[in-house]
Amino acid sequence: MSTEQQEHGKGGVYSSQGKEFTRDSNYITDRIVETPSAEGDHPVESGRYRLVVARACPWAHRSIIVRELLGIGEAISMGVCGPTHDADSWTFDLDPGGVDPVLGIPRLKDAYEKRFPGYPRGITVPAIVDIATGGVVTNNFPQITLDFSTQWRQFHKPGAPDLYPEELRAEMDEVMERVYTEVNNGVYRCGFAGSQESYDAAYDRLFTALDWLEARLGERRYLMGQSITEADVRLFTTLVRFDAVYHGHFKCNRNKLTEMPVLWAYARDLFQTPGFGDTVDFEQIKQHYYIVHKDLNPLQIVPKGPDESGWMTPHGRDTQG
Question: GST C-terminal domain: from which residue to which, for each copy (predicted)?
Answer without folding.
Answer: 165-289
